Amino acid sequence: MSALRRWWLYLMGKRSEVAALDYKDAYMAKVVMDIHRLRSGKAQAMVPLRALQPIHRIDRESALQATHARAQALRGRREELLARGQLDLATLNEIIPSVSQIKVVRDGERWLAFEGNGRLYAMREALGEDSGLTVEVEEYRFDRPHKILRRLRRVRRLNTLD
């Protein structure tokens, strides 16, 4: 499938969520733009599933349906993935494709996922948070991460996750 078609399908899948946007979503969008604007670098990282933390809940009907479908796809390969002990990018895209990677910012012993929260919830549902599985992510880095981390923590608080 072409990249343009994947983006189009992604955007069309999100259109039902637009009507339900609120101030938390606007603030989260600003924080994500700041992450992209202020990063000093990014790198691939293998992170324990239990250390990956979402920045928002999956609570809209269309997002819940997509998350459950992804969890079902992962359950079909659960034993293989647990035996392997890792979920690399190629395997993740094969099982639950998306237009982007899971993108994170490190916050001490946890990594805050600002992209890929639905996939993260699906992995936890299908494989178990304490499965010992590591997941390949794209880690965004900052020379001075304090402000970005403070904003990400605020997004989590607004979504009653912290």
Describe this structure in words.
This protein has 162 residues and is of the alpha/beta class. It is 52% helix and 20% strand. The chain is built from seven helices and six strands. Strands 1, 2, 3, 4, 5 and 6 form a six-stranded mixed sheet that branches. Strand 4 and strand 5 form a beta hairpin. The longest helix has 16 residues.
Provide the helix percentage: 40-55%
Distance between the termini: 38 Å
- Could you list the spans in which at least 5 consecutive residues all have pLDDT below 50? none
The average pLDDT score comes to: 90
**What's the total helix number?**
7
- Structure class: alpha/beta
- Largest beta-sheet details: 6 strands, mixed
Q: Which term fits the overall shape?
A: globular
Beta content comes to 15-25%
Rg is: 15 Å
Order of helices and strands: HHEEHHEHEEHEH
Number of strands: 6
